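Our consortium's second objective concerns turning raw sequence data into structural hypotheses that experimental partners can test. To show how far this objective has progressed, the report includes one record in full. It was chosen at random from the queue rather than selected for favorable results. The single chain below, 136 residues long, was entered without modification.
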Amino acid sequence: MKHAELYIDGAAKGNPGPAGIGVIICRDGEILKNIAQYIGRATNNVAEYTALIRGLQEAMALKVQKVIVNTDSELLCRQIKKEYKVKAPHIIDLYKRAVELISGFKEVTVRHIPREENRGADKLANIAVKKAAVKG
């Protein structure tokens, strides 16, 4: 598969608190995969990076070569573009893993989008947190 778009989001109820990720992988407007996963207790930024990593891993498994990553996290977007430094010690390893995965693609574009345009991934992340709360 040549190209795909990822919509990613992380949610933490409390910061840190119970957290989940939402990832939507699509191509030409068609949804290929929805992921809603509980990741345990984490900060919102850890959840955002975990969503990015999971999305990139899934895109790689689908043999995607060009990826557009859509995120409503301005911090993650600017850190990945190297506009901001990653200072939080608990984010550095996640950042390095994301950069390592990005290097495996022919082309990766990370775009900051308004929250309204990321409702699908946001909904999946929140579903993951709610399901875990019900089980817990």
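The partners drew two points from this record. The two ends are 39 Å apart (CA to CA). Residues 3-135 form a domain with the Nucleotidyltransferase; domain 5 fold (CATH 3.30.420.10). Both points have been shared with the crystallography group to help prioritize constructs.
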